[in-house]
Specification:
Length: about 150
C-alpha cells in the first residue's frame, strides 16, 4: 500500500448467535405480537430433540426470552439434553413424565398433565416422556436462551 492509496477497511458482519441458532434448528419460527392458540400452532420434525416443534419469538420481549412449542408423539420421548439457560414449561395438552439428573445413577422423575408448570434446573440432563400411547402431548417452554447466547 502506498501513501496515496486509502487504507483498506475490513467490514465485519454482526452475527446474532441466537438468530443463527434458530436457523440451524430447522423448525418453523412464529414471529409477531401474539399467538392465537398454542395448541394449534403447526409443528414440524425437530431432529435435535427427536420430536416435533416450532419456536415462538414475540416482538414485545425485547430479545430477553424465547419460547418453543414441543409436541411429543404418542408413546414417544424427547432426546435427553441439558442447557445453560433457564427453562419454564407449561403443559398445554396430554400427560407424561420428566426425568432430571446430574448423575446418571440418581435420576429424579415426576409426572405432569395439562395445566402443569415446572422448571428445569440449570445444566441438568432431562428427558420428557409422553404417558399416553394414543395422543400426543404438547407443552410450551419459555427460556432466556437469547440473553445467554
Amino acid at each position: 500500500m502506498t501513501a496515496t492509496q486509502p487504507e483498506a477497511v475490513e467490514v465485519l458482519e454482526r452475527i446474532n448467535t441466537y438468530e443463527q441458532f434458530l436457523r440451524d434448528e430447522g423448525i418453523p419460527v412464529v414471529r409477531g405480537f401474539a399467538v392465537e392458540d398454542l395448541r394449534t400452532v403447526p409443528v414440524e420434525p425437530w431432529a435435535r430433540r427427536g420430536v416435533l416443534g416450532t419456536y415462538i419469538v414475540l416482538d414485545g420481549t425485547g430479545g430477553t426470552n424465547d419460547a418453543y412449542v414441543c409436541e411429543i408423539p404418542p408413546g414417544g420421548a424427547v432426546n435427553p439434553q441439558r442447557q445453560l439457560f433457564e427453562e419454564m414449561i407449561y403443559v398445554l395438552e396430554g400427560n407424561g413424565s420428566t426425568q432430571v439428573w446430574y448423575d446418571e445413577r440418581r435420576k429424579v422423575s415426576f409426572e405432569w398433565k395439562a395445566g402443569s408448570l415446572f422448571a428445569i434446573p440449570l445444566n441438568a440432563w432431562h428427558r420428557h416422556f409422553n404417558g399416553r400411547g394414543d395422543r400426543p402431548a404438547r407443552f410450551l417452554a419459555v427460556t432466556n436462551a437469547p440473553v445467554v447466547m
